[in-house]
Amino acid sequence: MTFNLFAAEEQAIEQARLLGERLGAAAPDLRAEFDALVEAFQRSTREQRRLVRVSDRLQAQLGSANQELERRRQEAESALADLREAQEAMVRAEKLASLGALVAGVAHEINTPVGIAVSCASHLSDATARLRGRAQSGELSKADFSRYLTTATDTTALILTNCERAAKLIASFKQVAVDRASAERRAVHLNRYIQETLVSLEPKLRQSRHGITVSCPDGLVVDSYPGALSQILTNFVMNSVTHAFVDAQGAEGQGGALTVTVDEPEPGTVRLVYTDNGRGIPPDHLPRIFDPFFTTRRGEGGSGLGLHIVHNLAVGALKGTISVDSAPGQGTRFVLTFPKDTPPEDGAA
Amino acid sequence: MESLKLPATGRTPEVDFDFAQGVLRLSGESYPDDVATFFGPIFAALRGFLAEPGGHPVRFDMELLYFNSSSAKALMNIFQMLETAARDGRSISVTWCYEENDESMQELGEDFAEDLHHVAFTLKQIPADGAS
Ligand SMILES: Nc1ncnc2c1ncn2[C@@H]1O[C@H](COP(=O)(O)OP(=O)(O)OP(=O)(O)O)[C@@H](O)[C@H]1O
Ligand SMILES: [Mg+2]
């Protein structure tokens, strides 16, 4: 027996046909009208069949549209995941690159005091050899000896200060490098730490004759992620150097004034305000500067990740906030606010 | 009698009823928010046209590629009106267009032709993706 969706309708039509025959016999004048009714019912049944097919077709189309939608959604999601991965890779590469720049800067800076110390030492060594020669041949005069003493005093003083300077540079570099690499949490004396960070940037600043003023309460100790702080500060300064003072020809300008001002607007909260008096940022760029890959120097070394990383560090590592205030010709001002003691991760053991 | 021309909207098809030439065409997609508002004027115009004396030949091109159930019922009513006119002696042809590979649309066309005895009905395959 085959299944028929419209079996009941067909049966009704068959009954109507039989009834029509009986009616034909009993009341022939009604037959034609009755047949027209049966015909209308038959057509309506055929239309019903068609409508069922139309609606089945629509359901099938809806089903495949949904599948297509799901497929596209999955494609979009995996594209997004790829993009995130690529972005993270670029962020890591950027961190490494900025570490590389730091190494180069510090190597250059250490070269100067070490060079001076070496030439002083060799000068002292020459003078000592001469003195020994005179003493051995019994020609050493009192004047010779006192001249030697002056030389020795001067050169050893120079050697000492330059070696101390080199040692200080190495120490601060080690600090920054270690913090950057390990992002370790620890308590630091903020003023000292800012100074140490700036030491590594000094070559850049001196080259372009920018002056930087730091004002920070001396006793302020923060228990936080100093590596993040130093990276933020480095980015601020490097951005001022590369963007804020460029002239119409795009050459890096000179003689800007940068400031770092730290205070505690309320107990437990640290506010670091960084400013430059450069050319400022146009209003249509301002909302985008923290976006990854936003840069006005694409093709000239800008990746547009600097301030994105700054934002991530400020919000992520320091659990703080960052805002910018700038207008063309009015300089640029960043305000970084963060808890003096970084609260522990949510749910961290 | 004046032509009836309605541009397609997101949910309604293009209507191009050139009564002077006797060429009527529905094309696109049809799932109107309100069937009565959309099909009401179409039926009125068609009814007026078929009632006119003269009775020169009519061609109806059905180029809907997607339509909902109400539109399907409206289409059947239109076919019925055309069938009645053809039975009364008018020369009427209907062309049912379907995209290649759209077998279910082709089968629907065959179904819709079931009640057309006086109308000359043809199925016409058109290239997929619009370019008709
Ligand atoms: N101090 C500033 N003065 C003027 N414009 C600035 C300053 N700091 C940032 N900008 C603008 O914001 C943009 C984004 O800065 P960001 O540090 O994110 O990228 P970048 O410096 O261009 O590239 P990267 O830092 O990755 O090498 C810069 O391209 C620049 O247009
Ligand atoms: Mg930058």
UniProtKB/TrEMBL annotation, chain A:
**Domain Histidine kinase residues, every copy:** 105-342
Q: Which InterPro entries match?
A: HATPase_C_sf (IPR036890), HATPase_dom (IPR003594), His_kinase_dom (IPR005467), Sig_transdc_His_kin-like_C (IPR004358)
What are the record keywords, sorted? Coiled coil, Kinase, Transferase
Give the enzyme's main class according to its UniProt record, as a single word. Answer: transferase
Extract the coiled-coil ranges from the record. Answer: 55-96
Give the Enzyme Commission number. 2.7.13.3
Q: Name one GO molecular function term.
A: kinase activity
Keyword Chaperone on entry = no
Q: Which Gene3D superfamilies match?
A: 1.10.287.130, Histidine kinase-like ATPase, C-terminal domain
Presence of keyword Ribonucleoprotein = no
Q: Write down the chemical reaction(s) this protein catalyses.
A: ATP + protein L-histidine = ADP + protein N-phospho-L-histidine
Cite the SUPFAM superfamilies for this sequence: ATPase domain of HSP90 chaperone/DNA topoisomerase II/histidine kinase
Q: Cross-referenced PANTHER family, in alphabetical order? A: PTHR43065:SF47, SENSOR HISTIDINE KINASE (PTHR43065)
Query: Mind telling me what this protein is named?
Result: histidine kinase
Q: State the taxonomy lineage.
A: Bacteria, Pseudomonadati, Pseudomonadota, Alphaproteobacteria, Rhodospirillales
Automatic annotation (TrEMBL), chain B:
Q: Which InterPro entries match?
A: SiaC
Highest taxon of source: Bacteria
Pfam families for this protein: SiaC
What region holds the SiaC family regulatory phosphoprotein domain? 7-125
- What name is this protein filed under? DUF1987 domain-containing protein
Species the sequence originates in: Azospirillum isscasi
Which lineage ranks, top first, belong to the organism behind this chain? Bacteria, Pseudomonadati, Pseudomonadota, Alphaproteobacteria, Rhodospirillales
